[in-house]
Design a protein that fits this description.
Two copies of one chain form a homodimer. The first copy, chain A, is built from six helices and three strands. A three-stranded antiparallel beta sheet of chain A has the order 1-3-2. The two termini of chain A are 36 Å apart. The mean pLDDT of chain A is 88. The first copy, chain A, binds a DNA duplex through α4.
Chain lengths: 109, 109
DNA sequence: TTGACATATTCCGTTATGGGCATAAACTCA
DNA sequence: TGAGTTTATGCCCATAACGGAATATGTCAA
């Protein structure tokens, strides 16, 4: 079995750097597809495909405005991930020493 | 270009459900590979491969104990994700109404 | 050293990915 | 209706994913 489909859940959807970039860009407000194309110098079909994935898991909402389609980040959909990582918050700081040691060992190697 | 390598960054590493399960299991304390195998009813090679990915991005640390190898979650490595999603926290709540409407539209469709 | 146990690695097959390109679809305006 | 603009989709390719089975590596005990 290959990796779970990117459309299956939010974790997979944000595994792609481009999509995280797009989410950040669309967080402040609506933007048309062509804006994203210009901003990140990606091909239009590529952008549309990423948006399709993001929309599939509810990470963005779309709205037609004449010829254009305006997208916007639905930040609420990122909450599950924030909460999941937050469950590990209680362990932060405890292992700082070990992390440091590991980094130093790697540095010498 | 195919999908980004799972070993490239933490976002890709946690895109797999199994690996998230393993991380949660190893958060409380060290566990041997065989413990994970029993716990999740996965094949031993499969577990070893997942652990390799997790170790590759620093999400787990390993320690030999005789014939066994004890793994432990390095929660610190999850911090970047928590912080990234945290950047969207300021937008939470604003779109609740729209989200609700969207869900209702879907319910009727 | 040999045997037993625990873990890691390799090879293989199936599947999904994301980009490029061409084209379809949706919309506006004359 | 037809041309022009914007966005979505379909097809193909090269790549990497994950699982299974077999095997290699590592460790201990006798």
């Amino acid at each position: 079995m290959p990796r779970a489909a990117t459309t299956s859940d939010v974790f997979n959807a944000i595994a792609e750097t481009r999509r995280r970039d797009i989410l950040a860009f669309l967080a402040d407000g609506e933007h048309a597809v062509s804006d994203i194309v210009d901003r990140f110098e990606m091909s239009q079909p590529s952008v549309s495909k990423h948006l399709r994935v993001l929309a599939g898991v509810g990470l963005v909402d779309a709205r037609r405005d004449g010829q254009r389609v305006l997208y916007r980040t639905n930040a609420e959909a990122l909450r599950p991930i924030h909460e999941w990582t937050g469950r590990f918050e209680r362990y932060w700081g405890r292992q700082l020493l070990r992390v440091k040691e590991r980094a130093e060992r790697k540095g010498r190697a």
